[in-house]
Amino acid sequence: MQPNIILITTDQQRYDGLGINGNEILQTPHLDALASKGTNFSNAYSTCPVCIPARRTLLTGLHPTSHGLTKYQDGVEFNPPFTLPGLLRDEGYQTQLIGKLHLHPQRKRFGFDNIILSETPWPKPYSNVHSENDYERWLKRQGVQTHPCLNGMGNNSRIGRPFHLDENVHHSNWLVQETVDFLNHKRDPSCPFYLHLSFWAPHPPFTPPAFYYDRYKDEDPKTITSKWTPEIEEMPSGLPTDSVTGPFNKTELKSMQAGYYGLINHLDDCISYLLLELAQSKYGDQPTYIVFTTDHGEMLGDHQLFRKSLPYEGSAHIPFFISSNNISLSKNSSKDLVSLEDIPPTILDLAGVNIPDQMDGKSLKNIIHDSSQKLNRTTLFGECGGQFSNQWLRHNNLKYIWFPKTNQEQIFDLEKDPKELNDISGNQDISSQLRELMKEHLKDREEVLYEINSLEPLNNRPPRVFWKED
């Protein structure tokens, strides 16, 4: 019997956005319990940590350099050679998406039999790329005339506050209700299903229901200040609420953390409801794999930085685990170096479907069934273009970062320094090997000029790409 497969993705959730991953403040008991039933990957990365490139990778198993988008760019039509849901559909699976897809054009199914679509909780009827929103239509059917973002918290704002409407009409609640409705009333009983539940949270606006915001509003910020974080001499006024760079004041950081943690805690409870409904449904005794991850992380004020697209752990290091119902799995935490590219081939392998040779990722099936198995990947490459364009690699326990616009570089030893507090790019014995790896990786990229002799090690100075030197 082919297994059912549920892929649950959040948006903008840091690796430490789960209690099981070391967060002692944030409450995620249901996801923690689910992760402990299977394999929790402690070294998972988004190789282009921004929305659309990461979601293309999740759909295809292709690295951003293979699928063709290495920066945030809306409105670009995507015509991949294959998709994960399409390959599963062709082998008899019922395929369903509920939530965010963030690919162009909207309503293109990309191999899904059906899509319930909402890219954002903020209705944008006049947008050229985000006008379709099933959440907006549902709200109107519930008689809700108030705009769900009337509170003024923008889609990239660092300011947090409680959701101003009833909890029952929160975006996360709606998504999980639609998912339960699919399981109970829209399933084809003659075939297995592949369900992708795609949450918007904890992406801004940081507006969880009041109960969850209040739980964290008095907690001091857990933000990280490193040796290379610039010293704050005077707190500026009038900083745009979506600014990637600080400095950010403590009041804003507290509301940001309360909203962010509240959204995660809330969706943890929503997922608990889904799992309870699944267990009680007619499919509760069927073999089902449950895969959990996100598209990228959130800096959340670390190093006085906010949002995503950056090569640092807050942005690129992500939660990822594979669990199950009615399937025996190895219960372990894997330190293998993995990425979003590995999820599509793993799901295909679990379903017994052939993996296309063109996929860049590798199947993790053997690891989740036998903890002694290893992927033995030593190096992972990532990049993200745009205002803060960066190239980076993770090699064993070392991370190397290069900023092409300034030709500056940073190096961190993540085993000794997991919070990236101390930049060791001045160590030539370490930098020489990492530079050669980056040079080899970029050798066929004509648009990228990487010259080792002109590189500038930052060695704990603030990167000029964020903060211009006085």
Folded structure, characterized:
This protein is α/β, with parallel strands linked by helices and 470 residues long. The chain contains twelve helices and 14 strands. 26% of the residues lie in helices and 17% in strands. The strands form two sheets. Strands 1, 2, 3, 4, 5, 6, 7, 8 and 9 form a nine-stranded mixed β-sheet that branches. A hairpin with a 4-residue loop joins strand 12 and strand 13. It is globular and about 65 Å long. The relative contact order is 0.17. The model has no long low-confidence stretch (mean pLDDT 96).
Supply database-style keywords:
12 helices, 9-stranded mixed beta sheet, Alkaline Phosphatase, subunit A, Arylsulfatase, C-terminal domain, 470 residues, alpha/beta, globular
Question: What does the radius of gyration come to?
Answer: 22 Å
Question: Which shape, going by the Cα principal axes?
Answer: globular
Can you say what the CATH homologous superfamily of the largest domain is?
Alkaline Phosphatase, subunit A
Give the rounded overall mean pLDDT. 96
Span between N and C termini? 66 Å
Q: Catalogue the unreliable spans.
A: none
Percentage of β-strand residues: 15-25%
- Count the E strands: 14
Main sheet overview: 9 strands, mixed
Counted by DSSP, the helix tally is 12
User: Approximately how much helix is present in the residues?
Assistant: 25-40%
Number of domains: 2
Query: What is the second-level CATH architecture of the largest domain?
Result: 3-Layer(aba) Sandwich
CATH fold category name of the largest domain: Alkaline Phosphatase, subunit A
Q: What's the SSE pattern?
A: EHEHHHEEHHEHHEHEEEHHEEEEHE
